[in-house]
Amino acid sequence: MSKTQIFLSNLIITTTIVVAALYLYNGNSFDFSQGTNISPRVDTVFVKESVAKRRSEITKSRNTIITKTVKKVSPAVVGISVKEIRQYKYRSPFNNPFWERFFGGDQVFNQEISGLGSGAIISPDGYILTNDHVAGRADEITVTLSNGKHYHAKRVGSDLTTDICLLKIDANNLPYIPMGNSDKILIGEWVIALGNPFGLFDIADKPTVTVGVISASGMNLRPVNNRYYIDMIQTDASINQGNSGGPLVNSLGELIGMNTLIWTAQGSSGNVGVGFAIPSNKLKKVINELKTHGIFQRDYWTGLRIHSIDEGIAKYYKLPDTRGVIITDVVPNSPASKAGFQSGDIIRSVEKYSIDNYETLKGVLQNYKTGEVIRIGIIRGDKKLTKTMNLEKRNF
């Protein structure tokens, strides 16, 4: 083979290798239409499809169960504004008939108090749930829906003791939040609080949304202004002034509680991550009574006289701790005597509630209406017994 032939053979092999390498490197996209000039062609269709696919995947990842639930329940959250006329008495410094002829006696004057709160539509015919401390004493109640419409609301009934108020507006086919089962909540599950903090609902006709978890359940708090907060749900979802009465919903879009209280640090009035909601099963029971009677009847009596347990009582009765209350006396022919209670019995539970002291027992009994029958767990000597008592109406 001549040198010329060898040279041509090497040139052809080298060229073939280079072309093949470039072809593989550029994803098999060459255009040979221009003779020996090789031009890479970007597959724009393939790139556009890839970008669209990635965007779709990102959108799907953003559209979580939380965002879907918020979109579902937000139209059923309302802002509530109230006006209340309070009377104040001004005592005259001239408490003398002679001076009163010139300067007048005691004077009574009215003052209009405005307030804000939140609520949740719980039926398509316009029933709205909120707190008693939001609208229970209001003279004028205005409800604002997420579509911007305003309604004058009528108070169907309100219960100060449990801090629950039921309103009604004249509307139909409304979006609403179904009631869930608060006995089935899970500690640590995601929850969403919606409402009208600081009156922000009126700015855009939309509720403010905060997200957290259920921190605890069955929380028994001290009474506030004759309101008893028993078996409360604790959450770290941010709740602030104006959120009262708003719904606490689970990821299924069910109302499992009504936002009511916040725990504040000393010198602060804002949220510190500890909020409390009234459980939905208590709400359902009170709502049914308010719809039917306008009030929650508690005109019953027990005939029990009780005392909280201290260290001395616990030691005397050989109790493991100071939880519960001791019965000091039983009124003859009372519901308690008919149920078989005796002096010296230690009450440790009422239905599902543990009894820690006198305040707890008093608060737990507020959950029951006249005519209900309750089971009470006691310790008598070295025995644990369960007594059944009918909450009879007081007739005297």
Question: Which tags fit this structure?
Answer:
396 residues, alpha+beta, Thrombin, subunit H, seven-stranded antiparallel β-sheet, six-stranded antiparallel barrel, 21 strands
Walk me through this protein's architecture:
β18 (346-350) and β19 (353-354) form a beta hairpin. Residues 28-36 have low confidence and may be disordered. The N and C termini lie far apart (132 Å). This protein has four domains: 3-60, no CATH class; 77-168, Thrombin, subunit H (Beta Barrel), CATH 2.40.10.10; 182-293, Beta Barrel (Thrombin, subunit H); 304-390, Roll (Pdz3 Domain). The chain is built from ten helices and 21 strands. The protein is of the alpha+beta class and 396 residues long. The strands form four sheets. The protein has a seven-stranded antiparallel beta sheet with strand order 7-6-3-4-5-9-8. Strands 10-11-12-15-14-13 form a six-stranded antiparallel beta barrel. The chain has helices at 3-25, 44-62, 65-73, 97-103, 132-135, 201-204, 280-293, 311-316, 335-339, 358-365; strands spanning 30-34, 37-40, 77-90, 107-121, 127-130, 140-144, 150-152, 154-159, 164-168, 190-195, 208-219, 232-235, 247-250, 255-262, 275-279, 304-308, 325-330, 346-350, 353-354, 373-380, 383-390. The relative contact order is 0.10. The longest helix has 23 residues, at 3-25.
